[in-house]
Amino acid sequence: QVQLVESGGGLVQAGGSLRLSCTASGRTFVNYAMGWFRQAPGKEREFVTTISGTGGITYYADSVKGRFTISRDNAKNTVYLQMNSLKFEDTAVYYCAAAYGGTRYRTGDYAYWGQGTQVTVSS
């Protein structure tokens, strides 16, 4: 089992920044690729970004490329999502997730999920 706890969500004006954190417990963190997903009201959960266990490989959805940055600190069992130049359409509940092995894009490939943290961007 891997337990994930997100933090850092909130209300921000368009153009602003937020940093989300997700702390894991329960298994060897470096063995897991980590991902961030988001779900807006009335929409399906969508992929945002993923990072490999060592942090050397990252992928981003086109909608956030150049604005969001994923990183991880394996000594702290924590993955971060730095979100800059936020847009109204970034408003969603953001979830972190863990998948054993390499990076993943699909929600179904992630076995462990956090409870989610709300990000609201005002226009």
Number of helices: 0
Rg from Cα: 13 Å
Major β-sheet annotation = 7 strands, mixed
Residue stretches low in confidence (pLDDT < 50, at least 5 long) are: none
Q: What is the string of helix and strand elements?
A: EEEEEEEEEEE
Separation, N- and C-terminal Cα atoms: 39 Å
Global structural class: mainly beta
Please tell me the overall pLDDT: 96
Q: Please count the beta strands (DSSP E, at least 2 residues each).
A: 11
Helix fraction, binned, reads under 10%
Shape: globular
Overview of the molecule:
The protein has 123 residues and is an all-beta fold. Helix content is 0%, strand content 51%. The protein has strands spanning 3-7, 10-13, 18-25, 32-39, 46-51, 58-60, 68-73, 78-83, 92-100, 112-113, 117-122. The strands form two sheets. Strands 2, 4, 5, 6, 9, 10 and 11 form a seven-stranded mixed beta sheet that branches. Strand 5 and strand 6 form a beta hairpin. The protein starts with a strand and ends with a strand. The mean pLDDT is 96.
